[in-house]
Amino acid sequence: MPGRPAAQSAFSRKLLDHGIDARPARNAALIALLEDVPPPILADMLGLHINTAVRWADIARRDWTAYLAARDAEPHSQGDTKDAPEGQPGQAATSTPQGGP
How much is the mean pLDDT over the chain? Predict the structure, then answer.
């Protein structure tokens, strides 16, 4: 309705109808804000419950080194080209014998 503020859920739904998911950007913005602002102030600024702001602060401070180490230790999928030899991505390089056709 003109002249009235749009509800957050209605705006998000309209974006999703066009294939735009705003949640990742919102989450990244919250984490970036928490690098500069303590949770109680962020809660007041954005109208969040203090517990929600504290949970986001815990996520922002989380140490991801264990996850990254576990991810690096996983066997690579066939489509992964990181360790693939020369040739097409995900395929081993083939060579013909020197005296071949």
Answer: 77
